[in-house]
């Protein structure tokens, strides 16, 4: 019974760390995409302004 409990704890730990890692990766990718979009938009605006003058 004790071995089973330890295994259950270990599985829970693995699952929680796996979920946290996945969540962090998704958040990083999402922020990277939004940041890239913002940078590209700023560059396009800057380029347009420079071309107009």
TrEMBL record:
Keywords: Cell inner membrane, Cell membrane, Cytochrome c-type biogenesis, Membrane, Transmembrane, Transmembrane helix, Transport. It is a single-pass membrane protein. The keyword Protein biosynthesis does not apply. The chain crosses the membrane at residues 12-35. InterPro entries: Haem_export_protD_CcmD. Pfam families: CcmD. It is found in: Cell inner membrane. Its main location: membrane. GO terms for biological process: cytochrome complex assembly; heme transport. One of its GO terms (cellular component) is plasma membrane. The keyword Oxidoreductase does not apply. This is Heme exporter protein D.
